[in-house]
Amino acid sequence: MGYGKIASTLNLSKATVQSIVKAFKKTKETFPQPRSGRPKVTTEHKDRIILRAIKANRRLSAESLKETFEVFHEKDISSDTIRRRIMLSG
C-alpha cells in the first residue's frame, strides 16, 4: 500500500504519512520522542493533589496551599506554580 492510499484512508497529507514512516523506521516507535527543556517542578500526580485540595476548599489561597504542600510532600514549590497548575486545569 502506497503513501498516497494510506494518506487518503487516514485523511492525512502524504508528507505526514512519509514522516511518520520515516520516524518509525528510525526509532521503531510512533509516539514523539521527549524534547529537551526545563523539567516541571511537579509531576502529574502532584498536580492532581493540588487540584483535589482546591476542589475540596475553593477558598484556599495559593500561599496556604504552598505551605501545606511543603509540609506534607517535602517539596518546595512557588505559589505562582500552584496558580499556574490551577489555571491550566480549566
Automatic annotation (TrEMBL):
It comes from the Eukaryota. Gene3D superfamilies: Winged helix-like DNA-binding domain superfamily/Winged helix DNA-binding domain (1.10.10.10). Transmembrane segments: none annotated. InterPro entries: Homeodomain-like_sf, WH-like_DNA-bd_sf. PANTHER family: PROTEIN CBG27172 (PTHR46068), TRANSPOSASE IS30-LIKE HTH DOMAIN-CONTAINING PROTEIN (PTHR46068:SF1). This is Transposase Tc1-like domain-containing protein. It comes from Aphanomyces astaci (Crayfish plague agent).
